[in-house]
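We now fix the convention by which a protein and its fold are recorded. The integers have meaning only within a learned vocabulary of local backbone shapes. A record is reproduced here so that you can trace the correspondence yourselves:
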Amino acid sequence: MATRHSMLLIGVSILLYSRWWIMEFKTPTFQKVDNPASFVDTLFSRVMNYNYIYALNCWILLCPIWLCFDWSMGCVPLLSFDYHFIDPRVLAVLIFWIILITLIFRAFNSNLATSRLILMSLAFMIVPFSVASNLFFRVGFVIAERVLYIPSAGFCMLVSLGIHHISNYFKMRLLLYVSIFFLLTANISRCYQRSLDWKNERTLFQSGLDVCPLNAKVHYNLAKTSLNHTEAIAHYREAIRLHPEYEQAMNNLANILRDEGNISEAESLLRKAVAIRPEFAAAWMNLGIVLSNMKRSDEALECYKTALIHRKNYPDCYYNLGNLFLAKNKYAEAYAAWRQATTQKPTHSIAWNNMIVMLDSIGKLEEAKSMGLEALNGLPKDSALHFNLANTLGKQGHYEEAEEHFKQAIKIRPGQALYHTNLGVLYHRWKRYTLAEEQYIMALKINQNLTNVVQNLKNVQKLISKMNLTLQ
């Protein structure tokens, strides 16, 4: 027995040392929103809040209707104490300790078999949970249902022991068994119901809202997964109201408001976000986009540069920086920025396409062609790349190559009127008028309002008529 205990102790010690080694012998750093109770100033308030969390964990074991994917950010409001008010939730702490002390008392004042069962049950509940109790070190959560997996075994043992004792004193055993059956059925049904909550992100976040309406993160996630802008804005605003320093919610809300044309509020939110977290690279980039839309190029440039200071590997920021340089007709700088974006992320399709279109527009057709071919090595199924490369090849007079890339673009992404229009223009220049007519007609079937295509179609039909008359 002693040897077995020694081996167990050595094994646990090795595991603990390995864990500390992985963590580089440092405790992790958490924010206040992760575990507000551990940041309470006074020892008394901190202890009382910890005990209230213990009571809530026990309540979740007893009545698992309160299950939530995240318990941070105000989900469990802190107990408040002052001279004129005592939080009524203190009663939950009192009840928790009365029950625990009663169980410990019974464990030492019952027969040997019962005492051992109660002590084993309590050990299963308390020992595994102790590492998440904030007693030894601060943890990064308020309540985490995963830490109740092993304690639930001890809880089940206590319930079984209680049922056994009740059956010894309760004469109507049939009623007892029926009651237990209905209790099990109810819990199985709840387990099935809870499993359905995990069907997708949306149902999971909605279930969290039912349990923790004061959790800013729940509202943030609901907004993030919403396809309705009005609903998303409402949830983001509620998240910010509940947690006024929620910089990620400010960033996302600002992006929606920018897309809806509310530029001034978007700017205000992003400035608040970077003031709260100066190293927030995404917010700096989005602020740059907003300022660029407001034609405040110099300020936008500073924002992009700040974003790149905080996140060196940031292809999206380089892409937006390139757009800013393009707007100022700084073609070399734009090219360098987009080139950096594609170096960091070779699949950054928009940056590749922008380079091709820009080089084409300033007459550097051979460079545009080379860029398109290089891009297609990594993105062979990108319809826009085939389309833009085809336009360049057409200007160079490489009609057969251009035709092939236009066809590839249409095959990858059918139903694009512009693709058929430009292929029609290619055939028109190539003097393949019948094929041009077919493509113009295809484009007009997709979009009847293309006046330039209507005119092109009339022109090519006149040419076809002249050719037919000549042949006659």
User: Anything to note?
Assistant: The two ends are 110 Å apart (CA to CA). Residues 165 and 343 are 71 Å apart (CA to CA). The longest helix spans residues 173-197.
